[in-house]
Amino acid sequence: MPRTIHRRDVLRGGLAAGALGCLNATRAGALAAESLREGGRGKPPAQACIFIWLPGGVAQADTWDPKQFTPFSAGMKGSDLLGTCESIPTSAEGVRLGAGMERIASVMDRGCLVRSLVSDVMFGAVHLRAQHSMMTGYLHPAGFKAPSIGAAVARTLGRRDPRVPPYIYIGRDIDTADAENQFIAEYLGSGFYGVNWAPFMIPDPEQGVRTLERASGMGRERHDQRLALLQHLAAAGDPALGSAEAAGAYMKMLTDAREMMDSPVKRAFDIKGEEPEAVRAAYEPEIGGAGLLDPSYDHGRRFGSGLLLARRLVEAGARFVQVEYQYGPFKGFDMHESGARRMAEMKRQIDRPIAQLITDLDRRGLLDSTLVVIATEFGRTIASAPAAGTEPEGSAESHDGRHLVIENEKMYGFHGHFSSCNCMAFFGGPMKRGLAYGSTAARHPMVAIENPVRLIDAHATLYHAMGVRPDTAFVTEGRPVYVTKDGKGEPVQALLG
């Protein structure tokens, strides 16, 4: 049975039963929130989190950390290509973003940007391994089923509203057709926490929640009779089976789902029926379909609708909502050929929806109590060879592109994977406003040169902002597993208000 403990308890010999000082999830969250306010320091923790997940490796030098614009010229050296777009001013003094992010730029006075997110693990071309690290804080294989950030927040703090799932995931198709999709489902899930902390999946937000609709011809009374029969059969079976933790978790999941079916909270999922057309239009991307270089991979509208649904779910009492621009190999932000054009297209798909979310949360008085996080698995750099995507681990971190000749516009853009440095953005909650933290080199390799932030500490900052101590742990197989690796993550105080 998982138990909430803290690293300092273990260091005090806390594995003895009498000295564990174990806390249940609610108590742990309360103590964490109290610790944030000790002595009147800082703002109160956020009550909810919207985690915007942009997998594929966002090119930071054309978005959050713009470099000198270098127009295309056939035959130019890779080392001369620093940025494929101009930089633009933002509402935060001294903070600039890449062109194409004008709407996000208008709300950066409410944002806190980390430009120096570093990693000492070189993932090379292996996206999924980097995504596992970003989503769980642990390298794969971890030796146990590592829970995702969303599951950890949900498990520690519990539900805000008893009728709303504590961890909701929007924008990813439920697909286990191959090993890659199975792996993705694994690191987005609840790991060893169990089914009650697994994400409530909503693939297409515009379709609502079809799983909460009864089958054709199935009335409420008949449905309840079936559920009662299942409970009766479970009680009449082997007592050992009936008392098993997994069996109890499964029955609780069914009961929770049944309660949601007739709950007024169900309306929160109906954005088409509940939101005016003008509001839905404000979350739509500026480009899609035939306007894209690859029309077959167009998830911009789903992404925008997902952010609108996330706002509605936070209003309804959700604890943690993750919205993904669905990952696909060599699709979306996983760009190599035609990188400049594809990046411009991606910015036109995410810029308006993200800015609208921040604006709406602020206007509705929800931004102070809602932490918004924007993340990707690693950054981008100039490729080391014309055929990018196969570089060995560590190669992109050391070369400067001097041996690469950019022969045509298909090669114009950021092609290679860059594990060493990345960006992460925060809005709302107890984070500082109008801040860009850390800096990177002006030329390749664009490594962090000021205020590097380790991933474990970025995770600790997120947990701290939610009122979760970074040394919180749950026990599995007789050992504690912490929400940050070994409980050693340290919140970056410079990012906290």
Description:
- The protein has 497 residues and is of the alpha/beta class.
- The protein has one domain: Alkaline Phosphatase, subunit A (3-Layer(aba) Sandwich), CATH 3.40.720.10.
- Helix content is 31%, strand content 16%.
- It is built from 15 helices and 20 strands.
- It has helices at 7-11, 25-36, 102-105, 127-136, 149-157, 179-187, 220-236, 239-242, 245-261, 271-274, 277-282, 300-316, 339-363, 395-398, 455-465; strands at residues 4-6, 48-53, 76-77, 87-89, 96-98, 111-118, 167-170, 200-202, 320-324, 370-375, 379-381, 405-406, 416-418, 421-428, 435-437, 439-440, 448-450, 453-454, 472-476, 479-482.
- The strands form 6 sheets. Strands 2, 6, 7, 8, 9, 10, 14, 15 and 18 form a 9-stranded mixed β-sheet that branches. A 3-stranded antiparallel β-sheet has the order 1-19-20. Strands 3-12 form a two-stranded antiparallel ribbon.
- A hairpin with a 2-residue loop joins strand 19 and strand 20.
- Helix 4 (127-136) runs parallel beside helix 6 and helix 12 runs parallel beside helix 13 (339-363).
- The longest helix is centred in the last third of the chain and has 25 residues, at 339-363.
- The two termini are 36 Å apart.
- The model is unreliable at 10-31 (pLDDT under 50).
Short description:
By secondary structure, the protein is an alpha/beta fold. Helices cover 31% and strands 16% of the residues. It has a single domain, classed as Alkaline Phosphatase, subunit A.
